[in-house]
Design a protein that fits this description.
By secondary structure, this protein is α/β, with parallel strands linked by helices. It folds into 2 domains: 181 residues, FAD/NAD(P)-binding domain (3-Layer(bba) Sandwich); 119 residues, FAD/NAD(P)-binding domain (3-Layer(bba) Sandwich). Helix content is 23%, strand content 28%. It is built from 6 helices and 21 strands. The longest helix is centred in the C-terminal third of the chain and has 24 residues. The two termini are 28 Å apart. The mean pLDDT is 95. Bound molecules: NADP nicotinamide-adenine-dinucleotide phosphate.
Length: 309
Amino acid sequence: MEKTRDVVIIGSGPAGLTAAVYAARANLQPLMIEGVEAGGQLMLTTEVENYPGFIDGIMGPELMERMRKQAGRFGTEFLTDNVTSVDFSTSPFEVKTSDQSFTAHSVIISTGASARMLGVPGEKELLGHGVSTCATCDGFFFRDQELLVVGGGDSALEEAIFLTKFASKVTVVHRRDTLRASKIMQDRALNNPKIDFIWDSVLTEIFGNGKVAGARLKNVRTGDESEIAAGGVFVAIGHTPNSSLFEGQLELSGGYIVTKREGTETSVPGVFAAGDVVDFRYRQAITAAGMGCMAAIDAERYLEAQHDG
Ligand code: NAP
């Protein structure tokens, strides 16, 4: 495998794979270091119905498989490994995995974000069996059930409102007695007759035999414990951008990589970023793909300018 590359892409969700399609078609022979859990958040999704071009929807993993094949068709090389360190202090840049080192004239970062989890007993075991981090993806499976949503931000209320389309009742459990969500979302949720709130409370356990049956709650003010029956628990306590590799190398804000307003360039010229590691606002496959396209075009122009200069 060639060790000096024009473009190294780190991460293989919709942003990275779209960047790969564009960079490969520009003859830049990109290397994609795709991570050992390749494909990003869509690999944890079932049906995707809002990605344009798929009239009847498509399964998340299949969409990623198709994007990967498309990127490969134009000459993207894939390495299934995690990046362990980067050095952006001098150009060309250095990108290392556990046993290989690459020199890159430009880098596109598309490492995505991960949903934050509660870390309580039962959560991991029941993930995909009633515990979910995505109402849009899984809400459909909870018709006429009573559901819990954990969190007090816009995501939690958005999920709760969305879930009322299917559920018989949605209870939002929040650790404080004031919501962090925007006023408009608060008004909508508080006025929705299918939504109840349990304040000042946290989940201490999610239980069920192969399938969520309910949760144990603790009131953080009084210490009182109780149980609540539920067919599903939606954890909506935010996302963590996968950016720890870049701390001290790139400008970050709240963990998200900061890019220039007019494009995808980071605080280091020649290093570009796209998708959920940058974007906390939209977080959609299609917006990530769009940013991936932008990053590849930005990288191509950067390389051309270097060459001309
Ligand atoms: P967020 O604003 O960070 O809210 C996370 C919520 O989860 C907070 O209420 C927080 O409680 C709670 N939380 C965090 N860790 C917890 C834990 N370990 N146990 C229990 N509760 C915990 O995250 P978000 O709602 O995902 O929103 C992220 C950004 O996207 C925000 O800027 C938001 O406005 C935006 N967004 C906008 C929309 C929209 O406009 N339609 C929709 C979704 C997201 P505390 O309040 O006590 O900290």
